[in-house]
Specification:
about 500 residues; Aldehyde Dehydrogenase, Chain A, domain 1; Aldehyde Dehydrogenase, Chain A, domain 2; 7-stranded mixed sheet; 16 helices; about 40% helix; about 20% strand; binds nicotinamide-adenine-dinucleotide; binds (2E,4E)-2-amino-6-oxohexa-2,4-dienoic acid
Length: about 500
């Protein structure tokens, strides 16, 4: 793919940066230049927020629900029509295998718009009749009104999927958005501007500002008094900074944050299905999935057999160019993130891990040696308070520990400041339901992983986030409920 320019998208215009600042986006596959990203200045962010506000006071604000949802279905259709463009853009930014981006990332980009258009069309509002002293009575009903200008701050691991997961409900509810994609993945958010133009979404409804977090577009946006609410996906530490910024002006936040998710395999599980499912949960997207499993607990009677089977799965993953059909593992997002992951690989050894497989950098062909490659890695033998058992690493790795009882494994799984997800493998239905209640997480999978109807609530407990998005739950964040009381 030829190097390109990633422009800000403000008020339906593609713009460079008013201060002329830009930075390079490099490929995690081979270090080649993907493109130059124009970094939005404070002035550019102001313009984007102003355009978003004007849209609410213009045709977008007065558009009928059916017209708005029709536009969103057209956005979904246009993403599908331009599927290959989105695919190429996502792959160029992330280096993820084409097989993953074409089955996970891009289809979900389109599905998010369809789903939330359906949701807002089908939601009804509460209604109460009440008595009054004069005997005539009153009726109360609630209307949902858009919150206003929504700041959307996104991570790099599933760029289109996670950005549209927030943009689609925000727009379906009648808000306007200013999106700040990750500095690592500017492409698909930029491309979505073309889709908005093509289908005729009014100016100012969808805006994109590029840049970094602190002292850059991210902070300019979250501190902007013209932003009414902020929805964020990313690290727990960043979520803390964003929540503090949102305190000025008492603005709402929706935070989808980090995880250190447990996988639990009981001896009665379908062994092969559990190995398949856990291998996906640990290695998909090179471990860069917030819901991924980095702590694995396996019942002692099958522990050795399971470790051997997962090792085989890890070693069967071929790292390689995203377009090669046999590529099973992409690079990490950047050399910087690789340094972080490799520092955890070293720390595991320093703290006494038995390295079952991996632990370093794979040998790659000459053309790819500048990429951010790491080996899929499995450890055993660490204490429960070892660094790699506690910290979110966000790499293709896990620690496996044996357990002896249900109570013990529940205690181990819950012993973390995070509470995002868990995956449990058992054929004992009663036990499955018991664990789903006892595990302190936002989503508990039974004999599955990363499978979810988009109408269901999604989010984390403890330090994995605040709030739930998905289906009607998204409406709680993206709208204000106004009560109308009519005296009869
Ligand atoms: P990150 O927190 O470093 O960055 C996310 C976004 O925030 C980027 O756009 C960044 O530029 C911006 N940002 C950084 N500092 C900011 C600040 N002070 N003010 C405003 N914006 C700021 O996260 P990341 O490295 O891009 O993504 C990986 C992390 O995201 C992992 O912790 C992962 O678990 C988490 N994540 C969570 C979910 C979820 O649904 N819970 C989903 C995906 C990723
Ligand atoms: O499936 C989703 O809607 C979702 N938010 C997934 C998050 C994945 C984290 O990396």
């Amino acid at each position: 793919m030829a190097a390109t320019e990633f422009l800000n998208f403000i008020d339906n215009h593609y713009l460079r940066s008013s201060e002329g600042k830009s930075f390079e986006k490099r490929s995690p596959v081979d270090g080649g230049l993907v493109g130059r990203v124009w970094e939005a200045s404070q002035h550019d962010v102001d313009s984007a927020v102003k355009a978003a506000r004007a849209a609410l006071n213009g045709p977008w604000g007065s558009m009928a629900l059916t017209e708005r949802t029709t536009l969103l279905y057209e956005v979904a259709d246009e993403i599908n029509r331009r599927f290959d463009d989105f695919l190429d853009a996502e792959i160029a930014d992330t280096g993820k295998p084409r097989s993953i981006a074409s089955h996970v990332d891009i289809p979900r980009g389109a599905a998010n718009f369809k789903t939330f258009a359906d949701v807002v069309k089908n939601v009804s509002s509460e209604f109460f009749e009440m008595a009054t002293p004069d005997g005539r009575g009153a009726i109360n009903y609630a209307v949902r009104v858009p919150k206003g200008v929504i700041g959307v701050i996104c991570p790099w691991n599933l760029p289109l999927l996670l950005m549209t997961w927030k943009v689609a409900p925000a727009l379906a509810c009648g808000n306007s958005v200013v999106v700040k994609p990750s500095e690592e993945t500017p492409a698909t958010a930029t491309l979505l501007g073309e889709v908005m133009l093509k289908v005729g979404v009014p100016a100012g409804v969808y805006n994109v500002v590029h840049g970094f977090g602190p002292d850059s577009a991210g902070e300019f946006l979250t501190r902007h008094p013209g932003v009414d609410a902020i929805t964020f996906t990313g690290e727990t530490r960043t979520g803390t900074a964003i929540m503090k910024a949102a305190a000025d002006g008492i603005r709402g936040v929706s935070l989808e944050l980090g995880g250190k998710n447990a996988g639990i395999v009981f001896s009665d599980a379908d062994f092969d299905a559990a190995v398949d499912g856990i291998a996906r949960a640990v290695f998909l997207n090179t471990g860069q999935v917030c819901l991924g499993t980095e702590r694995l607990y396996v019942e002692r009677s099958i522990f050795e057999r399971f470790v051997v089977a997962l090792k085989e799965r890890a070693e069967s993953l071929t790292p390689g160019h995203p377009n090669e059909p046999d590529t099973g593992l992409g690079p990490l997002i950047s050399l910087e993130h690789r340094d972080k992951v490799l520092s955890y690989y070293r720390r595991a050894v320093e703290e006494g891990a038995n390295v079952v497989t991996g632990g370093g950098v794979p040998v790659m062909p000459d053309t790819l040696t500048a990429g951010a490659w790491v080996q899929p890695t499995i450890w055993t033998g660490l204490a429960d308070d070892a660094t790699v058992v506690r910290d979110e690493i966000f790499g293709p790795c896990c620690h496996i520990r044996p357990f002896d009882s249900e109570d013990e494994v529940v205690r181990l799984a819950n012993d973390t400041p995070y509470g995002l997800a868990a995956t449990v493998w058992t054929q004992d239905i009663a036990r499955a339901h018991r664990l789903a209640r006892k595990l302190d997480v936002g989503i508990c999978w039974i004999n599955a992983w990363f499978l979810r109807d988009l109408r269901t609530p999604f989010g984390g407990s403890k330090q994995s986030g605040i709030g739930r998005e998905g289906g009607v739950h998204s409406l709680e964040f993206y709208t204000e409920l106004r009560n109308v009381c009519v005296k009869l």
